């Protein structure tokens, strides 16, 4: 893919996507992405709640409830947007297909990144057509406590080292193809733990925004 014109500023060019089940959205999603966005200088982060196909274990909250929680959590952030295309699809949400859709809309020169946590990086070779991901986007990886910082598999580690960049400018001046491991703050929070804490009647105010916590209570979720 061609490089963008170098006379344009090398910050705030890249658009990033961030997919997840968000059952519920929490500070382990919001804070690292906020830090990453500041660190890299992202133009926009588009949050994509996943549709879970009927044959997979279903989230506890409905699609509409997960979407509403994402909307509430993103309200304070002017550069964070939500996109419902995956939720509206009756078919599985394959990231590669969503990326293809975006790529068609934004053109082949626009720098595009996909944000994932370290746990997702370590299992990326289980994703549908994972080897084509870097043709479509960069990968921006947020640190996550409790997960190794390297692959067990020598082959996967070689793939990472081949594509890794430590130059954040690459994310803005190339349309796709690089992996950036970001030194984002660590939050030992998971949606699984939040659901379990709600079931046990434990407080979760430090783990997710008040607006989301109030919605969970009002909708009587995770009982
Ligand atoms: P669950 O516990 O239900 O599996 P989760 O908390 O891991 O959910 P998801 O919605 O499945 O959240 O994750 C979406 C993305 O967020 C993934 O790329 C995942 O790696 C990342 N992520 C989730 N929690 C954290 C965290 N605490 N720190 C960094 N990244 C995270």
UniProtKB/TrEMBL annotation:
InterPro entries this protein is in? Answer: Cyt_trans-like (IPR004821), NadD/NMNAT (IPR005248), Rossmann-like_a/b/a_fold (IPR014729)
Annotated EC: 2.7.7.18
Q: Does the keyword ATP-binding apply?
A: yes
Q: What is this protein called?
A: Probable nicotinate-nucleotide adenylyltransferase
Every Cytidyltransferase-like domain range: 17-197
What Pfam families does the record point to? Answer: CTP_transf_like (PF01467)
Organism superkingdom:
Bacteria
Q: Which organism is it from?
A: Proteus columbae
Q: What does this protein do?
A: Catalyzes the reversible adenylation of nicotinate mononucleotide (NaMN) to nicotinic acid adenine dinucleotide (NaAD).
| Pathway linked to the protein | Cofactor biosynthesis; NAD(+) biosynthesis; deamido-NAD(+) from nicotinate D-ribonucleotide: step 1/1
């Amino acid at each position: 893919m061609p490089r963008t014109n170098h006379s344009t500023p090398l910050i705030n060019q890249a658009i990033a996507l961030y997919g997840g089940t968000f059952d519920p959205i929490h500070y382990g999603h919001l804070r690292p992405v906020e830090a990453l966005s500041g660190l890299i200088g992202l133009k926009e982060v588009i949050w994509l709640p996943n549709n879970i196909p009927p044959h997979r274990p279903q989230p506890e909250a409905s699609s509409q409830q997960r979407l509403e929680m994402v909307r509430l959590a993103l309200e304070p952030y002017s550069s964070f947007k939500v996109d419902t295309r995956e939720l509206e699809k009756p078919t599985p949400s394959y990231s590669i297909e969503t990326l293809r859709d975006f790529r068609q809309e934004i053109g082949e020169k626009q720098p595009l990144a996909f944000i994932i946590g370290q746990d997702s990086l370590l299992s990326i070779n289980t994703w549908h057509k994972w080897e084509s991901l870097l043709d479509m986007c960069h990968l921006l990886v947020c640190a996550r406590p409790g997960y190794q910082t390297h692959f067990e598999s020598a082959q996967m580690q070689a793939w990472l080292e081949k594509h890794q960049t430590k130059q954040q400018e690459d994310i803005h001046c190339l349309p796709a193809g690089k992996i950036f491991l970001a030194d984002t703050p660590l939050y030992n929070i998971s949606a699984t733990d939040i659901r379990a804490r709600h079931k046990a009647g434990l407080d979760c105010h430090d783990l997710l925004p008040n607006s989301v916590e109030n919605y969970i209570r009002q909708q009587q979720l995770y009982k």
